[in-house]
Amino acid sequence: MSLWNSTLVYVGARTLLAAAMIMIVLRRRHGPWFVLGQIVSDLSCAAFLLAYVNADIREDVGVLVIPLLLFVCYWELARFLDERKDRAEQGSDDESFVDSALRAYGTVWLIGFVVPAVLASGFVVLEVLAPNQWPFPNPRAPLVCAPRLLQPGDVLTLRMSVPHGGELSVFTPAGQSLVVMPFVAKGTEPEGAAFRDIERLSLRADTVTGRISPSADPQLVFTDSGVYVLRVSEEAEVSPSRVCRVRLVRGAGAGGPGTRERGWRGKWFPGIAIIIRLTAYSSSHVLGQVV
Question: What is the average per-residue pLDDT within 39-56?
């Protein structure tokens, strides 16, 4: 089982077990804002764990990880101290078996499910403060093309780790090598405007052109169905090339698989981003009501 799948199982189990923490809050007869606060804390911890193992979710979370981490630390610490205070006031002799079990479960929950999430969020915070300086499991490839299944009119997005090569070429199914972004010597373009400094590039499949040679006329790149290999490299090939592959599908069968892939990338991760932003918005309101 991959680390991503293992994390999904862990987060799923954590979400189910979080219901017991809601029971603890309800049993202590706290108001609805305390219940919402516990839900926000649990959702934040789940987001921290997923962001740690997935680069796309990590980017969606972005700088929101900082206020969410502060909220989780405040909330879980306040809950832990509140339980100890209630126990001291109530006395161990008056404590029922259910209260003892829930209190023990709260301690296990804090150590087994909150602390790992907080540690994971620490690495995400470091990534926000100093991007691309920290090792993560399942790192994004140096060159990523999305979607991998293209249809005429689609926008192909290239995501590249900076710095990278200064030339972009495409190998077509017909065996041609077309240069889309020719190599330009360093220092001849403004700082940050050169292709080698671009982290994300969007190309429309039905309009992008390339040349076989500098003197040849430009021609459309994505014309025939098949697999296209995109390569980012230096003109002199002094460093390893970065490649990714996409498949262009034309005709009646183009709609199915491509639509499913875009649904996974286009709906799932932005949906997580919306939930994270709602969680951050709710946390600010909870703090306003509780403090």
Answer: 87
